[in-house]
UniProtKB/TrEMBL annotation:
Pfam families: Peptidase_A4. Keywords: Lectin, Signal. The active site is at E206. InterPro entries: ConA-like_dom_sf, Peptidase_G1, Peptidase_G1_sf. This is Concanavalin A-like lectin/glucanase. Residues 1-19 form the signal peptide. GO terms for molecular function: carbohydrate binding; glutamic-type endopeptidase activity. It comes from Trametes coccinea (strain BRFM310). The keyword Signal applies. Residues 36-65 are annotated as: Disordered.
Length: 273
């Protein structure tokens, strides 16, 4: 899901009167990630806050934490993004969630290329019980589950997204413990301007929206390793120039995450209570 703008908040506020889905299946079937109206795109990017405590540019978002490569090397396109993470256990809660994903163009897009190619794991805790689902999505289409790939806490998964063109991409997910893998070939949905710009890649923990922003689960920390991006020209790009995003919930002053870039190929997103 994209960064949320004020316009999107307005839209989502209208839906918040609807009943919360009562079962996990109902949620999974009905969950959609809102696409932003084109007019709001310019508002999406939070302005940089401070680079003082970090060698990396740092910014804030009301629904994202993580790391983004906001643009490819001059004249190139991002065509591959990958990262490995362990699926977190969540602290007990009556209702909370977090989504962990890797994507292309969540940060960058142009007026005529508004696609977002992404895949990850949604983690929900409800009345103390945690459920997970592994999904993939090409915005503005909704998300779909991988079937026959039941995710549990502690699974170490590698996500690799390869864009063969602005309109076609393949998602590879591998269970590092077993080598078991699932693959999905996706095409841009048949909607205007749904192709990719191939201008950003990102590794994200998202506090997403489901009839309003779901309370953020205590996910402990998420350690992304093996992170890299490649361009169509074959350049490998690591995290040395990446931008850090921390989550500041609407109405809060302080971030709810602390994100660090630990090396050229690893980063950690930690929950802050
Ligand atoms: C998504 O996955 C969950 C958990 O495995 C399952 O209960 C649900 O039916 C799936 N939804 C769809 C749309 O396949
Ligand atoms: C990954 O492998 C572990 C260890 O065999 C297994 O318990 C788990 O269910 C697997 N998860 C997925 C998503 O394949
Ligand atoms: C990348 O950018 C170049 C130049 O803009 C373009 O010709 C090409 O189609 C783009 N896509 C890929 C996948 O390389
Ligand atoms: C890194 O990612 C590649 C996929 O490109 C995968 O084959 C490999 O197992 C991963 N390595 C680690 C240490 O996770
Ligand atoms: C980092 O960014 C600077 C300024 O844009 C650029 O000159 C440099 O080549 C970049 N380094 C890497 C490793 O991408």
């Amino acid at each position: 899901m994209r960064l949320i703008s004020t316009l999107a908040f307005g839209f989502l506020a209208l839906t918040s009167a609807l009943a919360r889905p009562s079962t996990f299946v109902e949620r999974a079937v009905r969950r959609g990630r809102p696409a932003l109206p084109a007019a709001s795109l310019a508002e999406q990017k939070p302005s940089p806050v401070s680079a003082a405590s970090s060698a990396h540019p740092t910014t804030r978002s009301s629904n994202w934490a993580g790391v983004v490569l906001p643009s490819p090397p001059q004249g190139e396109n991002f065509t591959v993004v990958q990262g490995t993470f362990a699926v977190p256990a969540l602290a007990p809660s009556s209702y909370a969630a977090a989504s962990i994903w890797v994507g292309v163009d969540g940060w960058q897009q142009s007026a005529d290329a508004q696609g977002l190619f992404q895949a990850g794991v949604d983690c929900w805790v409800e009345d103390g019980e945690t459920t997970y689902d592994a999904w993939y999505e090409w915005v503005p289409d909704g998300s779909y589950n991988f079937t026959g790939f039941a995710v549990s806490a502690g699974d170490v998964l590698t996500y690799r997204l390869v864009a063969a063109s602005e309109r076609e991409g393949t998602i590879y997910v591998e269970n590092e413990t077993t080598g078991e893998a699932v693959t999905r070939l996706l095409a841009a949905p048949p909607l205007a301007n749904s192709q990719l710009a191939l201008q950003s890649v990102e590794w994200i923990m998202e506090d997403f929206f489901w009839y309003g922003q779901v309370p953020l689960a205590n996910f402990g920390s998420i350690h992304f390793t093996n992170t890299s991006a490649k361009t169509g020209a074959g350049t490998t790009v690591g995290l040395s120039n990446a931008t850090i995003i921390d989550l500041v919930l609407s109405g809060d002053d302080e971030p709810r995450t602390a994100t660090t870039i630990d090396s050229d190929s690893s980063a950690t997103i930690s929950y802050v209570s």
